[in-house]
Design a protein that fits this description.
The chain is α/β, with parallel strands linked by helices. The protein has 3 domains: about 5-85, Winged helix-like DNA-binding domain superfamily/Winged helix DNA-binding domain (Arc Repressor Mutant, subunit A, Orthogonal Bundle), CATH 1.10.10; about 90-165 and about 285-310, D-Maltodextrin-Binding Protein, domain 2 (3-Layer(aba) Sandwich), CATH 3.40.190.10; about 170-280, Periplasmic binding protein-like II (D-Maltodextrin-Binding Protein, domain 2). It is about 40% helix and about 25% strand. It has 11 helices and 11 strands. It has helices at about 5-15, 20-25, 30-45, 60-85, 100-105, 105-115, 135-140, 195-205, 220-230, 240, 295-310, and strands at about 50, 55-60, 90-100, 120-125, 145-150, 160-175, 185-190, 210-215, 235, 245-250, 275-290. The strands form 3 sheets. Strands 3, 4, 5, 6, 9, 10 and 11 form a 7-stranded mixed sheet that branches. Strands 1-2 form a two-stranded antiparallel sheet. Strands 7-8 form a two-stranded parallel ribbon. Helix 6 (about 105-115) crosses helix 11.
Length: about 325
């Protein structure tokens, strides 16, 4: 009989590439991971790993078993969700991941609604970049997360993760009428490795140039303060730009399919004086959770609270 816990380790090895990375993700020692994988090979009766020095790769049988492991682990998630539903209403810890803008704007009203409707739930929030969410969900560090996707950047969730779309928002450029017009400017981007940074770089590349990045800042309020002080140009999403005066570009995009755009706030925000041009680019926010776990009462309650909170956003 194949052990699901060992199948989980094999799946992580297929995704992370090294035993050391798997060990770090599951808080085992590398030797413990190696022992578990060796035991899985004995259970399977065929070689699953090919070891060359310190390098470990999956054999064809190993790749085949990973495909089946995903289905097995997904079915176990469904079983866990069904048992939770049989026990009654959602209760206990609920680990929520969120990128900073969502944590600041969406989560406070969502958590108020969630705990008001389900006082037995214990939400615990951790800020996380969407690029790291899939691994955190697979490792069981999170139960549900808010992630975003940008134009020019492929989705970051993998085949083990399900998502539900929540809303879409446009992107703005500070103090320039178009990205092409900012070719010679210094840029303010998020830190390398984040989706926001990748989106900014690729948007500039699509306009025909490589941006000269002067500052790496993740907090959009700080980004807007730097832009207001003349220290560079930046791309910012609508929720970060809410409260700024907006100068619409010549080709504003249509509203996203999930939430129509409403009136734009006109009062100055924390970095007042920044002129913002709406671009034909968007950021989409989604709820993410492990495949098979979408019917878990706590996940259903969380996504319902997220959707309710979206109706109060300044979109």
């Amino acid at each position: 009989m194949l052990d699901p816990r060992k199948l989980h380790l094999l799946r992580e090895l297929a995704r992370r590439g090294t035993i050391a990375a798997v060990a770090e993700a599951v808080t085992f020692t590398p030797s413990a991971v190696s022992q578990q994988l060796s035991a899985l090979e004995r259970e399977a009766g065929v070689p699953l790993l090919e070891r060359t020095g310190r390098t470990v790769t999956l054999t064809p049988a190993g790749h085949l078993l990973v495909e089946h492991a995903q289905a097995v682990l997904e079915q176990l998630e469904r079983a866990s969700a069904a048992l939770a539903a049989a026990r009654g209403g959602p209760s206990g810890p609920l680990r929520i991941g969120a990128f900073p803008t969502a944590a600041r704007v969406l989560l406070p009203p969502a958590l108020a609604a969630l705990t008001g409707a389900h006082p037995g739930l214990e939400p615990m929030v951790a800020e996380i970049d969407p690029a790291d969410v899939s691994a955190a969900l697979r490792a069981g560090e999170l139960d549900v997360a808010l992630v975003h996707e940008y134009d020019f950047v492929p989705p970051v969730t993998d085949a083990s993760i399900e998502t539900e779309a929540l809303f879409s928002e446009p992107m703005y450029l500070t103090d320039r009428p178009s990205i092409a017009a900012a070719r010679g400017d210094g840029w303010i981007t998020n830190k390398p490795g984040t989706l926001c940074h990748t989106m900014a770089i690729r948007a500039c590349q699509a306009a025909g140039f490589e941006p000269l990045v002067r500052h790496h800042i993740d907090d959009f309020d700080t980004v807007l303060a730097f832009a207001a002080a003349g220290h560079g140009v930046a791309l910012v999403p609508h929720l970060a730009a809410a409260g700024q005066r907006v100068a619409h570009g010549p080709h504003p995009p249509a509203a996203g399919p999930d939430v129509p755009l409403g009136p734009h706030p006109q009062a100055a925000g924390p970095a007042h004086g920044v002129r913002l041009t709406r671009l034909p680019l968007s950021r989409r926010t989604l709820a993410a959770f492990r495949k098979g776990n979408g019917a878990h009462p706590a996940i259903v309650a969380a996504v319902t609270a997220f959707r309710a909170a979206v109706t109060h956003l300044p979109l």
